[in-house]
Design brief:
With 139 residues, the chain is mostly helical. It has helices at residues 2-92, 103-117. The protein is rod-shaped.
Length: 139
Amino acid sequence: MINKIAVAMTAIIFMIIALLMWAAFHYYGKSVSITDQLTTAVQQKNEAEFVTSSQALAVNTFNTIAGATLNDQKNNKVDSQAQQVIIQTVLQKEPCAVVNIPSAAADSLLTHYNAIRSGSGNTNSGKSASAVPAVAATK
């Protein structure tokens, strides 16, 4: 009888050990799987943050450029209006609108034109450009 009890106890202990080993390997596999998923999620989050910060930096750069361009356009418009008033004043003194533009007005306009373009990629190269069409005079 002691043999049967010892065999039964051994079988029960073996089953308990087997059950515990199954549980350990089962949950270890799940934890490894979850760790892999977590690592992948963290990498995706880091990539998304990098892309978002890169886009934000690009947008800020473009906004800075656009703001500077708008400011330059506004300043150029104000400067051009002042030049237009000067040129119109000089031209109003002339007896006829068909006469040539006085050299002082043309030189002033050219100097102003070169000053505006000096900060851009389209600066005056010193070479002559194609002929400029005549401007119709208005009264």
